[in-house]
Amino acid sequence: MSNVRDYGAAGDGQSDDTGAIQHALADGEGLIEFPRGDYRITKPIVVDLAKFSRTAIRGSGGTAKLIMAGKGPALFFAGSHDKSADPNGFKPEIWQRERMPLLGDIEITGEHPEADGIRLEGVMQPTLTGVLIRKVRNAIHVTKRSRNVLISHCHIYQNTGIGVFLDHCNLHQTIITGSHISYCRLGGIRIQGGEIRNFQVTGNDIEYNNNRALGVPDADAEPTAEIYIDVEDGTVREGTICSNTIQATYSPNGANIRFIGSGSKGNHRAGMWTIAGNLIGSQATNIHLTSALGFAISGNYIYSGHERNIVIEGSRSIAIGANTLGHNPDYGDKELSTGIRFVDCEDCTVTGLIIQDALAGQNTVTGAVANKKDGLIELVRCRRINLTGCQIFEGTPNGLVLEDCADTLISGCTVLDRRSPRLMEHAIVWRDSAKPTTGNLIHGCRIGTGSRGNLSGTNRTGIRVSENVQD
Q1: Which of 114, 405, 452, 453 has the most neighbouring CB atoms within 10 Å?
Q2: What is the rounded CA–CA span in Å between residue 447 and residue 459?
């Protein structure tokens, strides 16, 4: 073990300890220890693994703090691994000198507007545990290629950029678990381009990652999300978002979880993901998927979407399972209107869903935007959608609205307005503005009557209505 004090670091928060810490890395014994203190640095500490060999940095049980007073990352872990995680692809010197750099039990704080926390590049098995990063730009920034990244039990808090930023990198086998990621202005976890596979986000608290807490002028409307994945120039597949609390405060164009995919309908670049067992709430849109392929969304409680709970656009093979969409009862009569919207989607199922709109039929939270939805569930220009075994309550102005849809099955659903007086106009509305519809069925449903009736536009060729129970 090498103590940075033995190499001249003062740890008084005033002296420039950059040179002493770099000296400890170059001449130390591999395990670099920071005793309790505040270590001010003015340039990135570069952990060149090929040069220094196996390295770990430890902050004496969290009592040490690095203060980054210059541009760039406080700690830059640089490796030279350029292959996959396959054992047959390792150069002997990578395994001998560079595997599993460790960082733990330390705080990193920024004192420069362009200060970052940690940068990882070309690193195999980097493991971050018990790290607090605050008041920097991007807390953890991964670039180019890395493999088997573990981020566990960390606190990433109050940063002007992004909490965990995967920036056009080639990255497989990554786990973010048991961490708090909150109050980062441009997103809690953000993937921008690159090639990402096997990405797991599990057991975290990810909250309030927008501009509201930081108050940057004229930046409220910049799109953000707790988990923001934009692959218009990359591919992101094989991932899970499970057992997290993912909450926010409203921001225009905001979402709790947002995927922006790209590519043809046969090869969407965002896909093969599971979103399960999360608590997701309080944003403009809770889950927003664009050009996605192969998502399973189930077992979540999703609430307080100022505009919609779920919006899915230009996507296919999306399975929405047994979720509950509703409100936070702690707020009493302060409710937000709920809703799901599919646009230009194919081959999707919605099964076992419980969704209830606001009892007032509109957003009643002070400052909430006016809701312009046409139905509690809306399907627009969709093909081969199955809506089965769902309970759709208190829809405003309608329960279920379909427009220019074909080969759509609605079966075993309950569509009711239990309010008095009823605010729902129709339980099911079917509209076709183009060519006649084909292959549609409404069967075995419990269909309530609204203020203008129960079914609208379903008495036409191409829609079969059979064995339903109607008021």
Answers
A1: 405
A2: 15
